[in-house]
Design a protein that fits this description.
Layout lengths: L4 H11 L7 E2 H7 L6 H9 L12 E2 L12 H12 L4 E2 L2 E2 L10
Parallel strand pairs: 1-2
Antiparallel strand pairs: 3-4
The structure holds a DNA duplex (13 and 13 nucleotides).
Length: 104
DNA sequence: CGGGTGACTATAA
DNA sequence: TTTATAGCCACCC
C-alpha cells in the first residue's frame, strides 16, 4: 500500500469510474479531496504495480487526450482497453468523454 | 535546504 | 487549433 493516504483516496476514486466512461486527472484529484493534485494522480498511476486491477486507462487529461507518449506500451494498452469498453479514441483523443459518475 | 522533474491545468496569443 | 507560460505539488537527487 502507499505511505501517502492521498494515494489510497486516488485509487478509490479511479476504481469507481464506471466502464465505458473516462475522467480527467483534475477531476479524479478533486473527487479524492485534492483540488490541485492532478499531477499527484499522474504520479500515483505511474507508480501502480504491474498487474494492478485499477482501471487507470479511464483517466485522461483535461484536453480529452491520453497523456502518455504515443509510442509507449502503456499508451497502446490504454487505447486498447478503452476501445474494448466502447470508448472511441482517435489519434490519442478521446471522443464521447461522458464523465458519468455514479456517485459513491 | 535548494533545484529539477513530470501519466496536470488554466490562460493567453 | 496549436504553442507558450506560469502555477501546481510530491518526489528525487
Amino acid at each position: 500500500m502507499a505511505d501517502n493516504p492521498a494515494y489510497e483516496m486516488i485509487w478509490q476514486v479511479v476504481g469507481a469510474i464506471p466502464p465505458g466512461s473516462v475522467a480527467t486527472y483534475g477531476q479524479v484529484a478533486e473527487l479524492a479531496g485534492l483540488p490541485r493534485g492532478a499531477r499527484l494522480v499522474g504520479r500515483c498511476l505511474g507508480n501502480l504495480p504491474a498487474g494492478s486491477r485499477l482501471p487507470w486507462h479511464r483517466v485522461i487529461n483535461s484536453a480529452g487526450r491520453i497523456s502518455l507518449p504515443p509510442e509507449s506500451e502503456s499508451y497502446r494498452e490504454q487505447v486498447k482497453r478503452l476501445q474494448e469498453e466502447g470508448v472511441a479514441v482517435f489519434n490519442g483523443r478521446v471522443k464521447l468523454r461522458q464523465f458519468r459518475w455514479t456517485g459513491d
